[in-house]
Design brief:
The chain is an alpha+beta fold. The chain has two domains: about 120 residues, Roll (Nuclear Transport Factor 2, Chain: A), CATH 3.10.450; about 80 residues. Helix content is about 25%, strand content about 35%. It has four helices and ten strands. The longest helix has 18 residues. The chain is globular, with a radius of gyration of 17 Å. The two termini are about 25 Å apart. The protein binds 2-acetamido-2-deoxy-beta-D-glucopyranose (NAG) (4 copies).
Length: about 230
């Protein structure tokens, strides 16, 4: 409980001092894609002196993690949250040798990447189908929304929360006591009308990404890590 409170305070503090430009955040997600393509974790930039690195919401070694594998990326899309200094990137790899769908949140402190958290899914994960994900993702339009038609952060988050609340309700039965499904970590991009939420669904790390248009959900992308 104490730890949760400290984390919450930390988030508030981070939000209060956060200042980044969309260009800086785009440069960071571009470096993430380049690093993933080359298999060079140390070229993600700009990295803070100390970086928290997580896979499936657990501390992992960035040197041997997914970024150390050179992957041929078929599809990518990133959200850039200038209010929280955070980004979300979805990557689809259909390479028959080893297909992947990866979702990564980057969080910044003092203008540098201080936290990299990735959900890496492959064969055996819930509804995993990289070819299908690529097919549907390529049909969707996530174009920037004209400035005068953009929803506020609050409206975008509320649309996603309404969906995630349903998901929580439906899954209430069977969830161990004391698991707080409302531990939601958001990345919100008003320009794209999009939001990604990392959720702890009991022990199952999950990402829900939404495109919202005029306050209504248009598309939903989920990544759920079942493998151990
Ligand atoms: C990411 O996607 C954009 C198009 O949305 C494309 O132009 C770019 O080449 C892609 N990057 C990589 C590394 O695949
Ligand atoms: C790092 O970011 C992830 C996802 O955004 C979050 O769950 C985690 O609590 C963060 N860790 C720290 C130490 O800030
Ligand atoms: C994956 O998705 C593609 C495209 O929708 C579909 O043709 C294929 O049958 C799916 N594969 C599996 C194993 O469900
Ligand atoms: C779960 O956490 C949220 C804040 O993250 C809090 O508002 C809510 O009261 C908590 N719910 C329970 C049942 O502990």
């Amino acid at each position: 409980m104490l730890r949760l409170t400290l984390v919450a305070l930390g988030l508030l503090a981070a939000q209060a001092v956060a200042q980044c430009t969309r260009e800086d955040l785009i440069a960071a997600t571009d470096s993430l894609l380049a690093a993933q393509t080359a298999g060079t974790p140390d070229t993600v930039a700009p990295l803070a002196d100390t970086v928290v690195y997580l896979e499936a919401f657990k501390t992992a070694d960035i040197k041997t993690g997914i970024l150390s594998h050179a992957l041929n990326i078929d599809f990518n899309r990133s959200l850039h949250d200038t209010t929280q200094c955070a980004t979300y990137t979805e990557i689809v790899v259909t390479d028959k040798a080893h297909p992947y769908v990866i979702g990564t949140q980057l969080r910044f402190a003092d203008g540098k990447i201080a936290n990299i958290s990735s959900l890496v899914t492959d064969q055996g994960d819930w509804l995993f189908n990289a070819t299908g994900t690529l097919y549907w993702a390529s049909q969707e339009k996530w174009d920037p929304i004209p400035e005068d038609q953009r929803d506020s952060r609050e409206v975008i988050q509320a649309a996603a929360d309404a969906y995630a609340d349903l998901f929580n309700d439906k899954c209430d039965v069977g969830v161990p006591n004391g698991v707080n499904l409302s531990n939601r970590r958001y990345v919100i991009d008003e320009t794209l009308g999009a939001v990604d939420i990392f959720i702890d669904f009991a022990t199952v790390p999950d990402s829900h990404e939404f495109r919202v248009e005029k306050g209504k959900l248009r598309y939903v992308h989920t990544i759920t890590v079942m493998g151990g």
